[in-house]
Protein 1
Amino acid sequence: MKKKINTRMIGIAILAIIITMIGITSIFYGLFTDQVKRDLSVSAKLLKDTHYFESVNEDTEKIDLSTDMDELRVTWIASDGMVIYDNDTDALSLENHLDRPEIRDAFLYGEGESVRRSDTMNRNTFYYAILLDNETVLRVATDTESIWAVFVSAAPLALLIILGIMSICVVFSTVLTRQLIKPIETMGEHIEDAGFETPYKELEPFANTIRKQHMDILSAAKARQDFTANVSHELKTPLTAISGYAELLQGGMVSEDQKQHFYQEIIKNSDRLLALINDIIRLSELDRSEKEPQFSEFDLYDAVNEFMEGLKVGAAGKGISLEFTGEHCIIRGNKDMIRELTENLVQNGIRYNNPGGKVIVRVIKKDRPVLIVKDDGIGIPASDQERVFERFYRVDKSRSKATGGTGLGLAIVKHIVELHDAKILLDSAPGVGTTIEVVF
């Protein structure tokens, strides 16, 4: 970053110098040419006042301006365009001048001027012509360097100036860059300090975003670490139980009456282990899926009604009544994920209910489609309500394991809700029950 700033500052300085030099040279060259034209006009009028050119019958051999005006060419042209006198060349050798623009303008308007460029000589010749009282024209001319020649002659000095300014820019840009970057580096060192004041007000939103992302990364890393530890613990428990029961059976240390119980415990822990693995795999799929889920429009009421048929059997087996009511409303989502969400919420309502309890599922349309799952079970204390959607978090660990809960159901629900850009609301009280609303 420092190198880029230095390079660009030097580049800007060089560009500014070049543009300034071109601009100033053009301006002064324009002023110079205006001055040349004015000088020619004054010279022509002064020559007119010398009375050398009053009569066309004047002996031109007596007119000698070659020594007095080495840089000024004087030409006297008759009314027919023929050259009467020229201080630089034999007049008889010169062609007719009526086609020259400055001569033509002088005969028409009393005076005329023009500039002719010589690309080979890299010079400009300025002409000024004035009509005399005797209907002849007096023209004066002078040569100057072209603007390109001026640029070429100024190039060595310009290069020296550019080198000098580049040296100065290198020093100043290094110092300035260090002063600009130092506060940013300091901010980077204090990125975790929420109370650190951002050195530049313009960087405050950027700093807040970086700080938030940094905290999110740390939080995500801790969550992964906790998840790994929890997975290890959760898998270890059923595996230990299965291994222990199997060893006892293998060693013949179990009576015939107890074998059936041991077999049931092995099956129960195997089912629990399989459920844990399935939920872990599902969470990993939701976490790592790079493709957007396939969404379509469907009737939420019809979909949930279809899912309920399979859930009623499980509820009846545990003595829980399951009711479903609602109204038709269309949502855009992934039907398989909505099934998974509904099953997890209803199974939680069944699992954490009391014998003879009730789970009510409703689909209604307020401002938006809403799926409601309400139970009259054990409820959730206020202190635990913010954490129930965390992975492996259980309010009643002993009951959760006894009923086959993995502690991942609500974490999966939360993930699906986020993928559908929906909102989940929880209302619960111990001994009263729990109501969960998913607002699409």
Protein 2
Amino acid sequence: MCSSPRILVTGACGQIGSELTLVLREKYGSENVVATDRRTATSPRLRDTGPFELVDVTRRETIQAVVTRYKIDTIYHLAAILSATGEQNPQLAWDVNINGLYNVLEVARQEEVARLFYPSSIAVFGPETPRDNTPQETILRPRTMYGITKVAGELLCAYYARRLGLDVRGIRFPGIISSETLPGGGTTDYAVEIFYAAVTHRHYTCFLRPDTVLPMMYMPDCIKATLDLMAADPSRLKHRTDFNVTAFSVSPAELAAEIQKHIPDFVCKYEPDYRQAIADSWPHTIDDSAAREEWGWQPEYDLPAMVVDMLEKVRAKLSCELVC
């Protein structure tokens, strides 16, 4: 890879894309990172710090046009319909997550893109998968359309890597916690919502049971894992598109208790909804030894450190919104 790749980010307005794009621009130069989404960016930081283009990944010609115009050689394909939203509209989830991915892969192949990142998810696992210390190689029988599309996506990307020589790399992300952009329809959204509710109202009603343990990761570690994998020596990678990664596992009750150490009058109540069934099909803890061995994965944030940083950032963000 050259020192200044020409990068395209799809789904740049989403939870991961909105922060990864800014990090990439800082690292490689603003003009070298093209942010794209099917909707216009509302964040001035995202919109004004570099190129932004409207791209609908279900329409291949919109991807092709941007890749050609900007001479793209690296793609971070983050556009996706997440788990909870996917259950509400499974046809849309299939169209975006499968047809959109196929379009991106085909454009990457035709334009000889050097490297492509594809995020998978713990949603690939299902009730038959071991729930504790879930292995890298295991049963993949998800119960959600989102999970089904992610399994198919892993296999499709692996095919392009093996059969067509496209350098595709991917991570099975756990729940991602971040302060910059609110999540959009995932089963672990509570782990972000709870911070805003704690700071503003001192009260939150969680849509999962208090004892629902799920793997999680703080956004800085999510970005770190993405960049570390993309920079890894390909000769060391035995896997390609399906690396397990994790930072810590936590239940809503444990997260609420950690927040209460800093906001003692915070109260969390529980009213499980349809997302509980999705969470119940996912692992409690993850074995990410393959990522640690093949490209040196190591998280920097545990639960207490994440909570301290999240509360600080959420308070600063809310204060700025009141003043600005």
